[in-house]
Amino acid sequence: MLNDEPRRPEDLPEAEDTTMPYAAGLGPADPPPPRAAGSRRARRARSVVAAVVALALVTAVGLLSWGALRPVPPVAGPVATPAVSNTPSSGPSATSAPVGGHPEDLATFYTQQVDWQECQGSPAHQCASIEVPVDYADPDGDTFELALRKVPALKAEQKVGTLIINPGGPGGSGLEYAQFSSFVFSKRLRESYDIVGFDPRGIGASDPVACLSDEDMDLLFENDPTPDDEAERDQLIRDTDDITERCAREGGDRALHMSTTEVARDMDVMRALVGDERLNYFGVSYGTVLGALYADLFPDRVGRFVLDSAVSPNQTDEQKLGYDIEGFEASIDAFIEWCVARDDCALGTEEAGARDRIADLLDDVERQPLETSRGDIDSIGEGWLGFAIFMCLYSEQSWPILNKGLAEAFEGQGDVLLAYAMNVVGRSASGDYDDSSYLHAMIPVRCADWPRSDSASLSRAQRAARAEHPLWSRLAGELYDMCAAWPGEPRQPSGDTLAEGAAPVLVIGNLRDPATPIGGTKQLAADLASAVLVTSDSDGHGTYYAGNSCVDAIVDSYLIKGTVPSSDRAC
Predict the structure, then answer these.
(1) pLDDT in tens, 243-277
(2) Which InterPro entries match (predicted)?
(3) How many Å apart are CA 178 and CA 193, to the nearest integer?
(4) 386-430: per-residue pLDDT in tens?
């Protein structure tokens, strides 16, 4: 996880619910009324998830290529999910009894002992590790060791069960998500659940697969994302193919087993080991894909599921492209509206022409890169600049940084935006990338999850986008299949209704989300057989506990009481 406002890992004060709107006492049938259409949400008081939960936007924009839309089935009355069977632990080293059926050849994993111990530097939290097979088809082969972090329920006597969480990415650290749980989950929710975060297989503290060198990752940003001719385009694609091939070679067999489907199977092992008959889950952004695939694999084991800022595993290239453009247009308009109302707006005082100023800046930077005062990167081009602009749109809290960075960029300097972009991807001033940087996971996970893109279809989409959405096209860069050189087989989505027979799943999203646009959230709600959709009239990425008390009340009442609205809701 990345935090817009750094906090020390060993210093985790309890967040007071009074610092932001939160209607703890409201039930699912009577949340606060929706705010007026077009209103902007309050600035996020807790923006721990702002930068990492998004699907990565680097110079190569890999498009999701998944199935078809399905209608939302009717939900009859407030629905109660089954009570969770839970075996409480008696202390840090106690082990929950495994629960639920499992294949005999996986018994070693489903019945292993879990030794929970105090986390270093955070005695109130418990840490442990478990083993899962690298290849579920070969359970006697190599294994991944997964790192887990548990935040015990504040009121053990009223504990509902365990809530397993994922912050997105792909590649976001669930350990850090749990570590900062007091900033992203309400106190009422934390009283009712043990919260367990984990680093997915191959990521962070879970036997990391670091398949890219620092030079590879720099090259992703240094190449010209908007080639002017076929020679430049060919060079861009050759470099990307070379990086993809090196990742597969360096990552070996483990890199070929980092798919979301395999992580979903890992979560079922966790479910059994924490002692719950059904999995209770909260996933954000890419974490919604993980939740949806788990629900599709194990519909009878779905407990209380919240999928926040969603992406459907059934999206086609064309749908994903349309959603991305829709989300960007809404978000850039919101930023411009906010900016021109300020005395110091880098884009001037009028909304008209503001987009053109950004487009002109990109043209200028292509000809003359922005200078920086850093020794490791003395100038930046469109790659770093476009990435920084996109990431700053994810949260209103980052808009002042974007305004300041644009003002500096118009003067030929790139320090502010480069610093922000480097923080997002975990690059140090010396040029070293964190081992936990989500860029390490980007290629193995994307290439396992998403079918290869059709080049002719991408070319048609590119031409249409350039004509109708020129600023988005400039920032997104060339569209091509970054997984073309990956040796493993991609997942082939069914395009069918997902998770038939599962308990109700709550899908939530902001109307103006640049990272996982509302169109994709609505599609996931349509694709899931038992989904209920809740939309928030808000900007930015991440919906729950972000300033909308209506959303918070619905989510908390569902997770704590097991009830959901009788129909889709707008907050």
Answers:
(1) 999 999 999 999 999 999 999 999 999 999 999 99
(2) AB_hydrolase_fold, Pept_S33_TAP-like_C, Serine_prot/Carboxylest_S33
(3) 12
(4) 999 998 988 888 999 999 999 999 999 999 999 999 998 889 888
Residue-wise pLDDT tens digits, 140-158: 999 999 999 999 999 999 9
**Which of 263, 212, 111 is CA-nearest to residue 436?**
212
Q: How far apart are CA 101 and CA 483, in angstroms?
A: 36
What is the rounded CA–CA span in Å between residue 300 and residue 277? 10
Report phi then psi at 563, rounded to 5: -115, 150
Alpha carbon distance 385, 360 (integer Å): 13
Q: Please check whether residue 224 is in contact with residue 366, taking contact to mean a CB–CB distance below 8 angstroms.
A: yes
Instruction: Give the per-residue pLDDT at 277.
Output: 94
Amino acid 100: pLDDT: 60
How deeply is 73 buried, as exposed, middle or buried, from its count of CB atoms within 10 A (0-12, 13-18, 19+)?
Answer: middle
| Secondary structure letter of residue 433 according to DSSP | B
CA distance 395 to 293: 27
Which 8-state DSSP code applies to residue 5? S
Q: What is the pLDDT of residue 99?
A: 54
Burial grade of 302 (CB within 10 A; 0-12, 13-18, 19 or more): buried
- Residues 291/283, Cβ–Cβ less than 8 Å: yes
Torsion, CA 542, CA 545, CA 547, CA 552, rounded to 10: 110
Give the full edge-to-edge strand order of the sheet including 505-512.
Answer: 117-119, 122-133, 143-151, 193-198, 161-166, 279-284, 302-308, 505-512, 531-539, 569-570
Residue position matching structure tokens 């487009």: 359
Distance in Å from the first CA to the final CA of the chain: 27
Nearest to 394 by CA among 478, 465, 332: 332
Task: Flag residues of the chain having pLDDT under 50.
Answer: 1-98
Spatial distance between the Cα atoms of 361 and 417, rounded to a whole number of angstroms: 13
Task: Write down the pTM of the prediction.
Answer: 0.81
Q: Distance between CA 530 and CA 545 in Å, rounded?
A: 24
Residue by residue, DSSP assigns 312-376 as -TT--HHHHHHHHHHHHHHHHHHHHHHHHTSTT-TT-S-STTHHHHHHHHHHHHHHSPEE-S-SS
